[in-house]
Amino acid sequence: MEEEEEDEPLIDVSQEEDEELQGSAGCCYPTGTGYRFAVLVLICLTSLGSYFCYDNPAALQKEIKNDMGVDTTTFMLLYSLYSWPNVVVCFFGGFFIDRFIGVRWGAILFGALLLIGHYIFAVGAFVNEFWVMEAGRFIFGLGGENLQVAVNAYAVNWFKGSQLNLVMGLGLSVSRAGSVFNMNIMEPIYKQLREHYSGHVCLGLTLFIGGITLIFSQYCTFQLAWLDKRAKRILKPKTDLATGEKISFKDIKDFPISLYLLCLICVGFYTAIFPFISLGLVFFESKYELGSGQAQILNSLIYTISAVASPIFGFLIDRTGRNLIWTNAAILLTILGHALTAFTFVNPYVPVCIMGGAYSMLASSMWPMVAMVVKEHQIGTAYGIMQAVQNLGLAVFSIIVGVIVDSDGYLILEVFFLGCLCVALISGILLYIFDAKVDGMLNLSVAQQKLRFDRDKTIEDTKEKEIMT
């Protein structure tokens, strides 16, 4: 995927290392287990700060509404404004990575936008200007989803094949650990600061502290870029890490229907998860009469479960294949969870645990399917399109969700979520039918996927030899 032009090192190394002479053994060699493990850790940590700060508004929902004097509809603009830029920028970000700057500089650039946007958001709270907070979230959005595009591209470059589901599951696990950490630590930080400060000043200082996670993640992007550059320099003569092909706009019209059905699944499912969590704190307090602390724990439980379950599901999917069956099963379980929340007073931990497990299952099975339906040099653009469509849905539906809560209450909101999940389920069924019709890979077992990968690689190698001849 990376461009040949990305040959200048991001960090200048003054002395030439004789790494080529060290052999293929040892943790310092790119194909070694230790080296690949270091890359995996950095891939996971690169998204940690983004996920932590994305849900800062959810963790401080009451504080933001009270200190800034806004209603639910205005509060949800903080999420909508994050999503709006990604409707366009995600697509161009993925294309930009594939065509021009490469994944390394892409991750660094978009990580920097996250950092700048969050601190503008914090300054807005500190000076009591909500429009500045909105501007910060907009800039934050310019980097957030594009960073994930770059991270997904890293994962595919390094671990495409039988390990990809597990790697993406691990990435989600670490990222969602950041979300859980946010949900459970930001309000206590606010309460501690409130002993010395009050109102919007206290809110701003709390957000400043939260931004430390983004500084750490940005450091990880530089380290990951250095390891990736070093690996490419060593392995370039020996491997075909890059195909040499370049994405162009004309390729986009040839993307399969499978990709766009995956986009619909993504929008329908995540619309029923992320806005639910954004408003979950007040919902759990009002419907189940829970205290603030217990509601915080319950509201972060989906992320807590995903932090543990995502690598487990990733491991299972790597062993079984059949990604599409796992994805449709996750949608059905989420429908069950929302139905229990909407129409019963069963212990809220039951539906939330169901949704947490389903969220982990879908994330570990759906995102790797993108790499199965497009060519390797198109992966960044394909992920960009998927992120763009997802954010279009979240941008629109975040506003709708806020209006529904202010005008009709949470019961109608749950019915709305169920409708979105039905769209996702129908799309999943259509994808199953289409994939079977075109002899696709989305529902093959692991053994069948390996045979298909080997066959396709043989065909590509033959074509390359013919071109060279």
Summary of the model, kept short:
The chain has 469 residues and is mainly α. 78% of the residues lie in helices and 0% in strands.
Would you write up a description of this structure?
The chain has 469 residues and is mostly helical. Helices cover 78% and strands 0% of the residues. It is built from 22 helices and no strands. It has helices at 33-46, 48-54, 56-59, 61-68, 72-75, 77-126, 130-159, 164-193, 199-210, 212-235, 249-252, 257-271, 274-278, 280-288, 292-299, 301-320, 323-343, 349-366, 370-373, 379-407, 410-437, 446-468. Helix 6 (77-126) packs across helix 7. The protein is globular and about 70 Å long. Residues 1-25 and 237-247 have low confidence and may be disordered.
Which helices and strands, and how do they pair?
Elements: H1 33-46, H2 48-54, H3 56-59, H4 61-68, H5 72-75, H6 77-126, H7 130-159, H8 164-193, H9 199-210, H10 212-235, H11 249-252, H12 257-271, H13 274-278, H14 280-288, H15 292-299, H16 301-320, H17 323-343, H18 349-366, H19 370-373, H20 379-407, H21 410-437, H22 446-468
Helix pairs in contact: 1-7, 1-8, 1-10, 2-8, 2-10, 6-7, 6-9, 6-10, 6-20, 7-20, 8-9, 8-16, 8-18, 12-20, 12-21, 14-15, 16-18, 17-18, 17-21
Helix-strand sequence: HHHHHHHHHHHHHHHHHHHHHH
Question: Which overall shape is indicated by the principal axes computed on the Cα atoms?
Answer: globular
Q: Report the uncertain regions.
A: 1-25, 237-247
Classify the oligomer.
single chain
Number of helices: 22
Distance between the termini: 24 Å
What is the radius of gyration?
A: 22 Å
Number of strands: 0
Structural class estimated from helices and strands: mainly alpha
Largest sheet: none
Overall pLDDT, averaged? 83
Helix content: over 70%
Strand proportion: under 5%
